[in-house]
Amino acid sequence: MKLILLSGGSGKRLWPLSNDARSKQFLRVLENEQGELVSMVQRVWNQLDACGLSESSLIATGQSQVEIMRSQVGADVPLIIEPERRDTFPAIALAATYLYSIEGVSLDEVITILPVDPYVDNMFFDTVKSMEMALQESDADIALIGVEPTYPSSKYGYIIPSGETTETGLRKVSRFQEKPTEEYAEQLIAENALWNCGVFAFKLGYLISLLEEKGLPIQYEQFLKQYDRLPKISFDYEVVEQAKNIIALPYTGYWKDLGTWNTLTEEMSSVQIGRGIISEDCVNTHLVNETNVPVTILGMKDVVVAVSPDGILVSDKASSPRLKELVNFDQGPMYEERQWGWVVVLDDQKYEDGRCVLTKRIGLQEGKNLSYQSHTDREEVWTVVKGEGEFVLNGNMMRVRAGNVLHIPVKALHSIRAVKDLEVIVVQTGFNAQNDQIVELFHSWEEIEQNCMKI
């Protein structure tokens, strides 16, 4: 069995911590067994590793998430990279063509699709493992995992069984219902309906045949070339709901979608992360603060306060699911996690004479480096404020430390490596910032050293 984890998301439901470059699965707000803060994707990947599934797993993600994904789960985790977001059908189809034409996976191999961010206990993955046998024994087109509902939720989709079962006790599926009212959900539960947790499996040959029927390429490189012309549609609508023979495996353990602030805070081990004060008379109130600005909360009930470089949210927890409908700020991410460290935008100004000035603080982890690069339309001034490093400018390499100020002219080739954890204030200035391009020559420090000389 091959397991494909889907990692997407627009970064709106858990704003302001999440953004276009760091959607919800990357937020380090959950606690592991060692008391360390981890993200949803780190938690799930560790569970896959503990259950013996990580070796057969791949992650399908977008180009904007590659650096943060590798930073959080490791550079060796195999990624299938979407050139742009086009919903789950194109993403899964792209992964299928990769497995078929690049990896040479058999058409009889079972492919299981799993969201990258479910909040479950380890026994959930025992059910995931059993999907392969269930699909083989039932000869179904698609197998699903359905969670036994604990209450009539209007937040989840439902799998409605036909009433028939297979010889091994699997439920045959009649139809699906998207997010019903609570009243209708009660009726569906009476019909033994299950929550749809977005986990399903099929044989690779099933999807490859569907792609051929739709006139789509089954070779990865050809499929990639047509990716921007594919319809933006979910796999559920395009494939699952059209299938004739579907079975569901009931799961009775713990499962939750941590997609909104009210559900996420229920699983946080502490009511406060970051700098601030929550008064003792506050009830069911959480603070998550990623800045150095202190936040004080007094006498509040059922409230979440989230603060990041991207903005500030103060919300009643029950109202927080409405956030996605409201947040549409015209700004790029103000905080990004990179493979080599992190970036915080401190100021972004455009002046009447056409100058654009961007000020940011970057942190590089010990041993990590930026690529050897140049900018076509901006110059930079770097002020080293912490740590020690090696700096390269147009082939000349020198040691730098806190207090050094470095000037990088337009089109000058440059890079830096952290000998000790390094922080730098970067001021970028240009008259054509929108059209500025980054030209990268080398990525590894070994390549840079081979082609530069030390002073």
From TrEMBL:
UniProt keywords, alphabetically: Nucleotidyltransferase, Transferase
Domain of life of the native organism: Bacteria
Record-annotated Mannose-6-phosphate isomerase type II C-terminal domain positions: 338-441
InterPro entries documented for this protein: Man6P_isomerase-2_C (IPR001538), Mannose-6P_isomerase_type2 (IPR051161), NTP_transferase_dom (IPR005835), Nucleotide-diphossugar_trans (IPR029044), RmlC-like_jellyroll (IPR014710), RmlC_Cupin_sf (IPR011051)
Chain ranges of the Nucleotidyl transferase domain: 4-270
Organism lineage: Bacteria, Bacillati, Bacillota, Bacilli, Bacillales
Name under which the protein is recorded: Mannose-1-phosphate guanylyltransferase
EC numbers, comma separated: 2.7.7.13
Biological source species: Paenibacillus nuruki
Gene3D superfamilies assigned: Jelly Rolls, Spore Coat Polysaccharide Biosynthesis Protein SpsA, Chain A
Enzyme class: transferase
